[in-house]
Design a protein that fits this description.
Helix 2 runs antiparallel to helix 4, helix 2 runs parallel beside helix 6 and helix 7 runs parallel beside helix 9. Strands 1-2-3-5-4 form a five-stranded antiparallel beta sheet. Strands 6-7-8 form a three-stranded antiparallel beta sheet. The chain is built from 15 helices and eight strands. With 415 residues, it is of the alpha+beta class. The protein has a domain of 123 residues.
């Protein structure tokens, strides 16, 4: 998820921790303790993304290092728990009011909840995380929530805004809420009707919480946030089932990306493989076609631009889909290549390392033998962060390659 969403989760957890502490001690929490809780909540909720400080250039791996190390070890339960204890220890060291008061255990719970919330939120989208390392090195994907989901901002900011005690806090939260609402109109990421719905919902949500107590506000915020996530996962499951019914044989994976602000519609990349062919197809999927069918869902504008323009050099580009559409699945484009070609490329140590990230690998072998490889989730052929080029002859194998199991391991092991 985006860092604003992580910060909002951290602030909500901090406010909950303060309420728990007030109920436990029977008196209002002192201002230094409240401030320490807010700082600890936000820092803990953001801490796993510190992997950006070493992934890539620091390790001498460039783009490959970012792909393999972002959302890597710092996004595991083991490191998250260790990091939470470190943050808690620093809080005890720097804040005497916390160290000498009744807030010690509550702050430890907040630190743990903050770091773990980051992993939980990142799991919800299609990028993936490795939470169970070192017991399990595979990726896990939620495929349910858009990576910058405006509804989470609309649901999370009002209770924090009304409960903020500092002018700076109120200003920053207010600006964040205005920013997401303006972006909904200005960037064209959502239909205008949905942008209007976001504005109306934000105003109604603010009005509903205006006279509510802090406890009620937080309870409503958590309930609404969990409710939206639950709806998103239910829709994702329904969308996946629709694709499975449409592709009963040879289905290897279904990559689902929810439309921004609309958990009823998904952009899907469907991966299929048999003994000889590997195919990736793009489709629009309606989770509940009786409510909103695939045609009404339409396409995601940003992805249309990426897929429609940047893949023309990829074996002639994506072709029109060969399958007939239905109310649930509107097939759009497809791409295919010999599966043995991918298996052969995977014998190269550099390509093999990259396949530790690539969920939908697509490739082009130039006349001189150079290999252009990318993950179709993020386009192909441009200068995107998932576009990699390898020389015809393997030089030095990449260093610091983590032990992640390739998402397409089953296909790479095919004979």
């Amino acid at each position: 998820m985006d860092n604003v969403t992580h910060a909002l989760a951290g602030l909500l957890l901090a406010d909950i921790a303060v309420q728990v502490l007030e109920r436990r001690q029977g008196t209002p929490v002192e201002r230094p303790v409240r401030r320490a809780a807010a700082v600890l909540g936000v820092v803990a909720a953001e801490l796993p993304d510190l992997d950006i400080l070493y992934s890539g250039p620091v390790l001498g791996m460039g783009k490959l290092g970012y792909l393999l190390h972002h959302r890597g070890h710092t996004h595991t339960f083991v490191v998250a728990v260790v990091a939470a204890f470190v943050l808690w220890g620093l809080t005890m060291l720097l804040q005497r009011q916390v160290r000498d008061g009744p807030a010690r255990k509550t702050m430890l719970g907040l630190a743990l909840a903050g770091t773990l919330s980051h992993i939980a939120l990142d799991f919800t989208n299609s990028y993936g995380v490795h939470p169970f390392w070192p017991l399990y090195n595979g990726w896990v994907y939620g495929d349910a929530v858009f990576i910058v989901e405006p509804w989470l901002w609309v649901l999370g900011i009002p209770p924090l805004l009304l409960g903020a005690r500092s002018v700076v806090g109120r200003v920053l939260l207010g600006l964040a809420l205005v920013a997401i609402l303006v972006a909904a109109f200005a960037l064209g990421a959502v239909p205008q009707a949905l942008a209007i719905a976001l504005v109306v919902a934000a105003l109604l949500w603010l009005a509903a919480m205006w006279r509510a107590t802090v406890t009620v506000r937080l309870a409503l915020a958590v309930t609404a946030w969990v409710g939206f996530e639950t709806l998103s996962f239910a829709s994702s499951s329904a969308a996946r089932s629709a694709v499975e019914r449409a592709v009963p044989i040879g289905l290897a994976d279904v990559v689902l990306t929810a439309a921004a602000g609309n958990p009823l519609c998904f952009d899907a990349i469907v991966v299929e493989a048999d003994e000889t062919r590997y195919r990736a197809s793009r489709a629009t999927v309606a989770a509940w076609p009786s409510v909103r069918d695939a045609v009404a869902c339409g396409g995601t504008t940003s992805r249309d631009a990426v897929f429609g323009e940047s893949v023309r050099g990829l074996r002639g580009g994506l072709r029109p889909a060969s399958r007939e559409p239905s109310a649930a699945v509107a097939w759009r484009q497809e791409w295919s290549a010999p599966l043995p070609e991918l298996i052969g490329l995977a014998r190269r140590c550099d390509v093999r390392a990259a396949l530790g990230f690539m969920r939908v690998p697509v490739w082009e072998i130039a006349a001189d033998g150079a290999v252009q490889l990318s993950d179709l989730r993020y386009g192909f052929g441009g200068d995107g962060f998932a576009d990699l080029t390898f020389p015809a002859n393997v030089g030095t194998c990449p260093p610091f390659v983590p032990p992640w199991t390739p998402p397409r391991q089953a296909q790479l092991s095919a004979r």
